[in-house]
Amino acid sequence: MRKRTLTAVAMAVVALGTLSAWLATAQNRPYWYDRDYRYERDRDRDFYGNALIPAGTPLTVRLATEISTEDANVGDQWTGTLDQPVMRRGQVLIPEGSQVVGVVTAAQQGTHETRPEIDLAVRRVMVNGRMRSLTADTEPIIGGSNRAKKIGAIVGGAAVGGLLGHAINHEHGGLIGGLLGGAAGYGATRHAFRTLTLKPGSEVMFTTSQELMVWR
């Protein structure tokens, strides 16, 4: 009798251990299985349906603030809006038109030998009515580059020589005026700063450098 009791107790202990192991495995299982019974965790969505925007997600931002190397300083704040929605698996996570807040990370005037440059970064974005922290970066915007031209950046200062040449040419006329204007323009611009300006409406592409969970 005693031997049967011990056997029953041992079987119960084994059963409880097996059940505990099964429950632990069940808790750690992914949320769904594929047809071949091989599982894969859906890393873009948690148990509550919140969606994850991964690092490396592109953000197309339309500036609402004018930014110029003439007066911009590191840390200056700028604003804009998303020009395209942020989507994941066919769902809109951050709609088009959402507010974006960023900062100037570098601003450098150009000279006759160097080009002006502006560096920007996103720091916050409006998600579901709340401003959320988000870091997104972009390549430097350099005056005269193909990218700057595509963005619509305006480079000033280099045109001063042309304007002076036109004024002198208008006053003195003919070839002499043109030569004097060109010389005066070159002298005026050789050491002059050149300014890079991004006007409101300029479209800049950023890339997120951190994940962001969007609460649904």
Structural features, described:
Helices cover 28% and strands 33% of the residues. It has three domains: 1-41, no CATH class; 51-157 and 193-214, Lipocalin, CATH 2.40.128.260; 160-189, no CATH class. The strands form four sheets. A six-stranded antiparallel beta barrel has the order 2-4-7-8-9-13. A three-stranded antiparallel beta sheet has the order 3-12-11. Strands 1-14 form a two-stranded antiparallel sheet. It is an alpha+beta fold and 216 residues long. Residues 29-44, 158-181 and 183-191 have low confidence and may be disordered. The longest helix has 26 residues, at 2-27. Strand 5 (86-88) and strand 6 (91-94) form a beta hairpin. The protein is elongated. The chain has helices at 2-27, 146-151, 160-172, 174-189; strands at residues 51-53, 58-63, 67-68, 77-82, 86-88, 91-94, 99-108, 117-127, 130-137, 141-142, 154-156, 195-198, 203-208, 212-214. It is built from four helices and 14 strands.
Would you spell out the secondary-structure blueprint of this structure?
Elements: H1 2-27, E1 51-53, E2 58-63, E3 67-68, E4 77-82, E5 86-88, E6 91-94, E7 99-108, E8 117-127, E9 130-137, E10 141-142, H2 146-151, E11 154-156, H3 160-172, H4 174-189, E12 195-198, E13 203-208, E14 212-214
Query: What's the pLDDT, averaged over the residues?
Result: 76
SSE pattern, N- to C-terminal: HEEEEEEEEEEHEHHEEE
CATH topology of the largest domain: Lipocalin
Whole-angstrom Rg: 31 Å
Count of separate structural domains? 3
Counted beta strands: 14
Number of helical segments with 4 or more residues: 4
CATH domain class of the largest domain: Mainly Beta
Biggest beta sheet summary: 6 strands, antiparallel, barrel
